[in-house]
Amino acid sequence: MDPFSLDEILMAAQKMKSKKSCGLDGIPSCVIKDSMPELETQYLKIFNSILLEGLPEAWRTAVVSPTHKKGPTTALFRTSPLLESCSKNVY
User: Fold this and answer.
1) What is the pLDDT of residues 1-50, one digit of tens each?
2) Among candidates 53, 56, 41, which has minimal Cα distance to 86?
3) What letter does residue 57 receive in the DSSP assignment?
4) Nearest-CA neighbor of 10 among 29, 33, 42?
5) At CA 10, angle to CA 6 and CA 82, rounded to 5?
6) 27 contacts 1 by C-beta, under 8 angstroms
7) How many CB atoms lie within 10 A of CB 50?
8) 65 - beta bridge partners?
9) Cβ atoms of 59 and 90 closer than 8 Å
10) pTM of whole model > 0.70?
11) Is 26 left (phi over 0), alpha (psi -120 to 50) or beta?
12) What residues contact residue 63 under an 8 Å CB cut-off, 6+ apart?
């Protein structure tokens, strides 16, 4: 697999949804997006390292919580995984 380019990293950061919940790391997506201009080279190194070495163990973990769907029955639930903020770009 070819390494990520800086343009791909910047595009992925732009697509991150700022108003989503923090991951288990407690880092909101807006922090990643806002820090991109200063840390773009470091993010590029991190994601290319992940391509070579695999996902960090912490990024393989999610907290799954049931979310009630509309309707009268209490059995109508969907699951909502809570992932690490950075891992959302990898998946």
Assistant:
1) 899 999 999 998 888 887 777 777 788 888 888 999 999 999 999 999 98
2) 56
3) G
4) 33
5) 120
6) no
7) 16
8) 80
9) yes
10) no
11) left
12) 24, 81, 82
Give the separation between CA 82 and CA 75, rounded to whole angstroms. 21
CA dihedral 55, 56, 59, 62 (to 10 degrees): 110
Tokens 């390494």 belong to residue: 3
Rounded-to-integer distance, Cα 47 and Cα 34, Å:
18
- Looking at residues 60-76, what average pLDDT do you find? 70
9 close to 43: Cβ distance less than 8 angstroms: yes
Question: Nearest CA to 81 among 65, 67, 58, 68?
Answer: 65
Structure token digits, residue 81:
């995984």
Tell me which residue has tokens 């991190």. 46
Instruction: Give the E-state strand segments of 1-91 in sequence order.
Output: 63-68, 77-82
How many whole angstroms separate alpha carbon 12 and alpha carbon 2?
16
